[in-house]
Amino acid sequence: MASQPASAGRRPPPELVSVVIAVHNGTDLLGDQLDALVAQTYAGDMEVIVADNRSTDGLSEFLRRYPDADALRLRRVDASERAGAGYARNTGVAESAGDFIAFCDHDDRVHPGWLECLTALAPEHAAVGGGLETATLNSADVRRWRQLLPPDVPNGFPGFLRWSPTCNLGIWRDAFDGVGGFDLAYAEGGEDADLTFRVQLAGGSLGFAPDALIAYRLRDTLIGLWKQSVMFGEGDARLFAGYHRHGMPRRHWLATVDVIAYALIRNPLLPTWLTRAPRGAWVFHTGNLVGRVKGSLRHRCFYV
Fold first, then answer.
1. Per-residue confidence at 3, pLDDT binned at 50, 70, 90?
2. How far are the Cα atoms of 19, 51, 68, 162 from residue 48, in angstroms, in the given order?
3. What pLDDT is stored for residue 131 in this prediction?
4. Which InterPro entries does the UniProt entry name for this protein (predicted)?
């Protein structure tokens, strides 16, 4: 595994931050995210790189007409050679000029102090994650389908390392390049955890800035939620297959029993008065279980 020097003592603040956004057919929501980037309180230099991953919805023209393109130093880069967010982000980083990279997604909305808070902690760490809140962009019903950790609690696998989702992650360029960027083998999900795991195992630290908030958009259809949850489950199994030798433990058997019992008892085919659970919550937990089973079979491990 490649080495990288990113957390060897405190370093100066970034000279230039490159915000990298991977986009595939996202013009309907990208404008809100760009507007949120215009409204950042961050006083340093920044640029915004949109990595176009095979969009067919007029993304190039949309970016040409975006009114605040100059203020953002907005650029589109062609990331169409291979489908996938990991490839698009790698391409965006390669085409960017910043010494610090900040990732966000086109369908979310960064809070005004996002970049200021992310970069404030950057001198102390190789990478920095931030908090996610779901109240701004999602209905109360959709929020009941999938409950995230509170914004001030970092993500982590119990008994192993912390990780940060790529929708809210800052990383020094030398740390990113030192571990080879995103591993494109994680096509089914888990590429964000894998990246931050490799940074930490290479000697870098992962900081957490809870005030570096983004408004996170949840899946608002059951089929979309099912696909996402299955993908997450497959990614978790792949992570276990790759990092078990580094100390990543299996899920506790009681957690497996609990989710199987939930899938049976909360089955939406049963009357709602009996299940007492929203259908979306069942879809998410059951889809995640199915994904872990699929991933375990595919990667020849047991992580259910």
1. very low
2. 5, 10, 11, 27
3. 98
4. Glyco_trans_2-like, Glycosyltransf_2, Nucleotide-diphossugar_trans
What distance lies between CA 15 and its chain's CA centroid? 24
**Whole-number Å distance between alpha carbons of 14 and 244:** 35
Buried b (16+ CB within 10 A) or exposed e, 69-88: beebebbbbebeeeebbbbb
pTM higher than the cut 0.70:
yes
**How far, rounded to the nearest angstrom, does the alpha carbon of residue 137 sit from its chain's CA centroid?**
17
Q: Which is nearest to 11 in space by CA: 207, 152, 196?
A: 207
**161 within 8 A of 154, measured Cβ to Cβ:** no
Q: Give the strand order in the sheet containing 127-133.
A: 74-78, 46-52, 17-23, 100-104, 168-172, 127-133, 206-215, 109-110
Strand 127-133 with 168-172, pairing: antiparallel
Residue 117 above 90 pLDDT? Answer: yes
